[in-house]
Amino acid sequence: ETGVTQTPRHLVMGMTNKKSLKCEQHLGHNAMYWYKQSAKKPLELMFVYSLEERVENNSVPSRFSPECPNSSHLFLHLHTLQPEDSALYLCASSQEGGQSFNYGYTFGSGTRLTVV
Amino acid sequence: RKEVEQDPGPFNVPEGATVAFNCTYSNSASQSFFWYRQDCRKEPKLLMSVYSSGNEDGRFTAQLNRASQYISLLIRDSKLSDSATYLCVVNRDDKIIFGKGTRLHILP
């Protein structure tokens, strides 16, 4: 069990469904991230929240909508996805500021999403 | 040219052997460097940071060559449990860039 918990672990959804991915971190970190990992591609950063404010949105389609209600929770709301959105979605957290990234990220176990 | 490049492998190495792989980065302003390990269908986990003077953690040694812009990971006395994908990670201006990873298979 890591300090970053993601639910659900697996999700199958139709293209017309609406679902949400949840991430919770118990590490006292002040930054949280959504990454997408597709087969044979490097990790792709989707969204960054620092101190609960979105600081980066890497040209992600609007069918992905993040929400960060507090520093411990992060959601990714999904609607009208496409089959090519099937991937592993990873949440991560870190402590921002100064050289703090020298401690690296802590990742959750991910949600394996299949869009049918 | 990709900002962080790794040989995807796979590296097939007999148990007990020493294996090394490199990661090159293109931006000389890159500030900090890491190796992550990712097991099949699992999340990446921090293996070790890479310091300018080189650093060692048990059987693992990481080195940074700023002049040639690469980092390396050396694994001695490899174990079956070392089989995984090793991701190179570079931090530049608080932007984190992951390599595609190098797959390592340790053979019994």
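DSSP finds no helices and eleven strands in chain B.
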